[in-house]
Each structure stands twice: as structure tokens, then as C-alpha cells.
TrEMBL record:
It holds the Pfam family Epimerase. InterPro entries: ComplexI_NDUFA9_subunit (IPR051207), Epimerase_deHydtase (IPR001509), NAD(P)-bd_dom_sf (IPR036291). One of its GO terms (molecular function) is protein-containing complex binding. It comes from the Eukaryota. GO terms for cellular component: mitochondrion. Residues 46-77 are annotated as: Disordered. Residues 87-255 form the NAD-dependent epimerase/dehydratase domain. This is NAD-dependent epimerase/dehydratase domain-containing protein.
């Protein structure tokens, strides 16, 4: 309450004005367009590890007989981590291959499971050391076989921007991740052993319910976008509820890019400008290098868990 200087009577404060419906609708439209851009470009560069057309049983592409010692020479930490084994779901996609390269450099023994099961860059000194497995992560038996050999896991499997009848977001994201989580829970663990590190690449938009205008933006989104976010959030919840056997780290990148991806470069300034202006539902973009290094830092930091947004990813990158 305010007091009138002339009459000494309390004067009520004016009621807070609610944003007009036109503004809310405009914000929602901008948000949906933002998500369409982000999801379309991000998923275009991800490789699916679970697909209706994939093989039910894993097929392994053998490593070259003449292996280099590149990974063992990469750093002083490589020899320390040399015996650790990493399983990557979707390792030959845009993000996955960068994680594979960095993991080999730091001395990890890497296995990649994807529906293609092929080395995306034959002759690359790091990727030639990866064990490429062709199979379907939506098949629980396939994952149980591979998880039994792994000390840590990375889920970076994506899909097409609009899922079809044989490759849905529920299949390529939720089902494959749940199979991974369940396989890790069933895996024999020594008493008092540390939880298994699991890195999951989610999406910045998964946090929309927690930001201003986020719910309105999502309400205006088309059905396939809602399914995309539902799948991401379902995995985040399952990981969080499995902390007894898993150390979950969930990365929420917005648009992922590099200077070689000319199709996304025009929209990078738009995303970053909107974030700098304080638009709550648009996160700053991250480079594929930043994301892959953040994932590696998450694997190697036994105390790290929970959701990592772009600020945390940029900080984690400096450790690698």
C-alpha cells in the first residue's frame, strides 16, 4: 500500500498487468520455430542406435590388424584410463564420432553400437581403433551382451527430425536408453563399487517447463516435437531414479554446430542473440567440440552428476 501525501489515506498499488494474449502467442510461435530449427539440425547429424530396420543381433566390424599406439601416447592420463572400456550408442553420428575420437585419445577402449555399424572416417587414426558393432539397441539382449564388457556408457543416439512408423522417438531415444539402464542395473557389480557413469545427450528444450513462457511454447508445438521432448524427459527421469547403480550426467545442448556444418551457420547468430537478450526458452548454441569434451569430462569426474546446460558444458570443456 502507498499513502497519499495530501490526504494521508492509503492508496492501493496498481495491480500487476498480465502479458497480453497476443504477446504470449507471439512468444509461443517464436519458441516453436526455434525448436523446429534446433531439432531438425541437431537430429540430422545424429546416428540412430535403435531402429526398426536394424539387425537384432550385433555384427562386429573388426579393427585393423595393425593398430597404432595413438591413444596410448595421447596423454599422461591415457595409460591410467587405458584399461577402461566405453560403450557408445550412436558412435558414428556427428556427435558420436567426436566422442569416439576423444575417448581413444584419452586411452579408453571404445565400442560403438549403431544401426550402420561402420567407421564413418576410414583411415582416421582414432576411429580405426574403435570396435564398430552393427545392431539394434532397442533389442535388450543386444545391449546386455555389450554392457557386460563396459565400464561406462554414452547415449548419443538420435533419429530423423520427424520420426516415421519404423523409427519413432520412443524407440530411438526412450527404449534404447531404458534398455541400457536396465542392462546396467542387472549387471553384476562388486559390493561397494562405484556407480557406472552414463552420459546422456538430451536437449535444451527438455527444460522448457522450468522457464518463463516455456509451457506456452511447448503447448503450441506440433505433436512430433512433443513426443521428442517426452522421450528425452522420460530418459532423464529414469536415469535420475537409478542413482544407486548409475551416475547419470544429462547434457542439454541447444543447436550443436561446427564451422564445417554450413547448413546451420546462418542460424547460429540468431540463437545466440536471442539468448543474450534474455529470451528464457532459447539457450546459447554449443560446438560439437564443446559437447564432446564436456562428455569426456563427465566420464572422468566421479563427482559429477545431474543436468548440464550450456554454461556447465563450457566450464567442463576447459578440463580436457
Amino acid at each position: 500500500m502507498m499513502v497519499s501525501a495530501s490526504l494521508g489515506r492509503p492508496v492501493p498499488r496498481p495491480a500487476a498487468r498480465r502479458p497480453p494474449q497476443v504477446l504470449l502467442r507471439s512468444v509461443a510461435v517464436v519458441g516453436v520455430l526455434t525448436l523446429c530449427w534446433s531439432t531438425s539440425f541437431r537430429d540430422r547429424h545424429e546416428e540412430s542406435a535403435g531402429d526398426g530396420t536394424a539387425f537384432s543381433h550385433p555384427q562386429v566390424t573388426p579393427r585393423p590388424e595393425s593398430r597404432t599406439s595413438y591413444g596410448l601416447r595421447a596423454s599422461g592420463q591415457a595409460s591410467e584410463k587405458g584399461s577402461r572400456r566405453l560403450l557408445i550408442l550412436g558412435g558414428n553420428g556427428y556427435v558420436g564420432r567426436e566422442v569416439c575420437k576423444l575417448s581413444v585419445e584419452r586411452g579408453w577402449q571404445v565400442t560403438s553400437l549403431s544401426r550402420r555399424g561402420e567407421n564413418p572416417e576410414p583411415g582416421n587414426p582414432q576411429l580405426d581403433q574403435v570396435r564398430w558393432v552393427k545392431g539394434n539397441a532397442a533389442d535388450a539382449d543386444t545391449l546386455r551382451q555389450l554392457v557386460g564388457e563396459a565400464d561406462a556408457a554414452v547415449h548419443v543416439s538420435g533419429s530423423k527430425s520427424v520420426a516415421d512408423e519404423t523409427s519413432t522417438y520412443d524407440t530411438v531415444t526412450r527404449k534404447t536408453a531404458f534398455n541400457l539402464i536396465n542392462a546396467l542395473k542387472q549387471k553384476f557389480r562388486m559390493p561397494f563399487s562405484a556407480p557406472t557413469p552414463v552420459m546422456f545427450v538430451s536437449a535444451a528444450e527438455a527444460g522448457w517447463p522450468d522457464v518463463n513462457f516455456g509451457p506456452q511454447v511447448e503447448e503450441a508445438a506440433p505433436g512430433w516435437l512433443k513426443e521428442y521432448l517426452m522421450a528425452k524427459r522420460a530418459v532423464e527421469r529414469e536415469l535420475t531414479s537409478s542413482r544407486e547403480s548409475i551416475r547419470p550426467v544429462m547434457f542439454r545442448p541447444s543447436l550443436i554446430w561446427s564451422w564445417t556444418k554450413f547448413d546451420v551457420l546462418p542460424v547460429i547468430p540468431v540463437f545466440n542473440a536471442l539468448n543474450a537478450l534474455g529470451v528464457p526458452f532459447v539457450d546459447k548454441t554449443v560446438t560439437v567440440s564443446t559437447l564432446s569434451k564436456a562428455i569426456m569430462a563427465g566420464l572422468e569426474d566421479d563427482g559429477l552428476s545431474g543436468v548440464q546446460r550450456f554454461e556447465q558444458m563450457e566450464q567442463l570443456e576447459t578440463r580436457i
